[in-house]
UniProtKB/TrEMBL annotation:
Name of this protein: ABC transporter permease
Keyword terms of this UniProt record: Cell membrane, Membrane, Transmembrane, Transmembrane helix, Transport
Keyword ATP-binding carried by entry: no
GO BP annotations listed: transmembrane transport
The organism of origin for this protein: Muricoccus nepalensis
Length: 303
């Protein structure tokens, strides 16, 4: 209880309580996360259970329109699937890919950034030139290239089975330079300080020095960068799925739902694509606003 009380009275908690934008963003993000994670429990239907689908229910409008019913508050799609349930399941997949890709980029970027900043010399030059070259290309192009190579190298059945992990790798490998450059700068500052030199003298290995002395000094900026990068990863996955090179229709995300609904947008069934699009915007915008607030809250110059 004392730890909870101290956390509640901390500067960050005080800044959070007095920031309406942060509070509203946190509530929206929490609703999106709970709805996505608990989709099998909270969703009214299982939209991917073929036995429960009825084509007679296809293209039902939302409940607030004529001929709409409360049984399907956001309407149904061309297969008779409940759009609200599809959004919850799709958000679950989008969130999983976004978090996994961000975690992969974070781990790879931290590892390479520590190596470059601590070792310096040739190691630093090679790693940072690779990062500089990669940063000259948009992330989505790198992700498309990785996904295209995977599709060409793997049999179609095998690719469909591991499509989720291919997308996670494609997005993560395109985002690591941001984390690496952040960690590298901190490592270059810390490696020449007296406590690091003293640790070398008493025989502590480079790996332990980097993990126990250098890395803790950059956790704040890394947390902010990871929060902001999560929104970008979700957008990247949605873009890939919208282009038809992301997740398969058997494992749809919000991007897949938007692509499917786009085929019916101009025939009057706008809700099939608009509601997944609104859900995607709400999820990404709330995460980005939280990241912006966290960046300001951890900046001592703005306190």
């Amino acid at each position: 209880m004392n730890a909870i009380a101290r956390a509640w009275d901390s500067d960050i908690a005080y800044a959070f309580r007095h920031s309406p934008t942060a509070v509203i963003s946190a509530i929206v993000a929490l609703v999106c996360i709970v709805g996505a994670v608990a989709a099998p429990v909270l969703a009214p239907y299982n939209p991917f259970d073929l036995a429960s689908l009825d084509l007679m229910d296809a293209f039902n409008p939302p409940a607030f329109l004529d001929e709409g019913t409360l049984a399907h508050p956001f309407g149904t799609d061309d297969q008779g699937r409940d759009v609200l349930s599809a959004i919850m399941y799709g958000a679950r997949m989008s969130l999983f890919v976004g978090v996994s890709a961000t975690a992969f980029a974070l781990l790879l970027g931290v590892l390479l950034g520590l190596m470059a900043g601590y070792a310096g010399g040739t190691v630093d030059a090679v790693l940072m030139r690779i990062a500089d070259v990669q940063l000259t290309f948009p992330n989505i192009l790198i992700a498309l290239l990785v996904d295209g190579v995977a599709r060409a190298a793997l049999p179609r059945d095998l690719h469909d089975q591991i499509a989720v992990y291919v997308v996670i790798f494609a997005i993560g490998i395109s985002d690591w330079p941001r984390f690496a450059r952040t960690v590298r700068g901190s490592a270059m500052v810390e490696r020449n300080k007296e406590y690091v030199l003293a640790a070398r003298v008493i025989g502590i290995g480079p790996a332990r020095i980097m993990l126990t002395h250098v890395l803790p000094n950059v956790l704040g900026p890394l947390l902010v960068l990871a929060t902001l990068n999560l929104g970008l990863a979700i957008i990247s996955e949605a873009t890939l799925s919208f282009l038809g090179v992301g997740l398969p229709q058997t494992q749809p995300s919000l991007g897949t739902l938007i692509r499917i609904g786009n085929d019916f947008l101009f025939s009057g069934e706008w809700w099939i694509t608009v509601f997944p699009g609104v859900a995607l915007i709400a999820m990404v915008l709330s995460v980005n606003l939280l990241g912006d607030w966290l960046r300001d809250a951890l900046n001592p110059r703005l306190r």
